[in-house]
Design brief:
Helix content: over 70%
Order of helices and strands: HHHHHHHHHHHH
Length: 273
């Protein structure tokens, strides 16, 4: 299944989850003043950002893409200051730096894993493509900007539910992804015929998109966006730890360094709240 088709199906399924969730638990109480911000947030943060990030992932591999994602919290901090007037204190900057360092060390950990032959993505050469790196940074910047726009919507309507915001964002992303699939002449009907693949897409849409976004956007609504984004660095750390356990390998020094950096970063971020 192509990446574009996968994103189209995940957006459609997740939208249905959020729609049913809102109808049965809260009812729909859409606030007009938030719609432009959420629609643009969905198009930019879900649609365009994911396309750029997945493209760079396919060209550079997971290690280098993960390293570049370390800049996301800092980019978001700058955007928060420019568009929302939210400041970042020294403790928060220190926490952002350490969480970014954590992701960079994880990138080196994955690079070492690749070179040992356990996972050949782009071979063992450690070439760096500046054009692809800029595309990746563009994707992470758009993703961060989508979060800022969502935060703006919550500032305008503090009583809005995170599930409502997610429904609008994902619905907007679905249409832009559908247009891209049409433009690239991707046959979605053919892609949907694989039952086992669609079962995994359904499960991924529920766990990885619906549930995760339900908590993530709720945290963005109530908290400091760059800090929340930095804490998102926990996810790749836990995923890497799971990989080590599954493959019964001893973690590399880079991974232990990432753990230390993550622990110190979280400590600083908590102290700075």
């Amino acid at each position: 299944m192509s990446v574009t088709a996968l994103n189209v199906f995940k957006a459609a399924i997740s939208f249905c989850f959020f729609f049913v969730f809102n109808i049965f638990l809260f009812g729909l109480n859409l606030q007009i003043e938030t719609l432009p911000w959420l629609v643009i947030s969905g198009i930019v943060g879900f649609g365009l950002a994911d396309i750029l990030i997945f493209y760079s992932f396919s060209k550079m591999g997971p290690a280098r893409t993960l390293m570049l994602s370390a800049f996301t919290p800092s980019i978001m901090a700058l955007q928060s200051y420019i568009f929302l007037g939210l400041s970042v204190n020294r403790g928060q900057w220190g926490g952002l730096f350490l969480m970014g360092l954590c992701l960079i060390l994880l990138g080196f950990d994955k690079r070492k894993h690749n070179e040992n032959g356990a996972e050949k993505v782009l071979g063992s050469r450690w070439e760096f493509r500046w054009r692809t790196a800029l595309i990746a940074l563009g994707g992470f910047s758009l993703d961060a900007f989508g979060v800022i726009l969502t935060k703006k919507a919550f500032i305008l309507a503090p009583t809005m539910k995170s599930s409502e915001a997610n429904m609008i964002r994902i619905g907007s992303a679905f249409f832009i992804l559908l247009f891209i699939a049409w433009w690239r002449k991707i046959n979605l009907r053919e892609q949907i015929k694989n039952v086992k693949t669609m079962q995994l897409v359904f499960l991924s849409s529920f766990l990885g998109t619906f549930l995760s976004l339900l908590f993530w956007v709720n945290a963005i609504a109530k908290g400091h966006p760059p800090t929340i984004a930095a804490l998102g660095g926990l996810s790749p750390v836990l995923a890497t730890l799971f990989e080590y356990g599954k493959e019964k390998r001893w973690p590399s020094p880079y991974f232990f360094g990432a753990l230390i950096s993550m622990g110190c970063g979280i400590f600083l971020l908590i102290l700075s709240l």
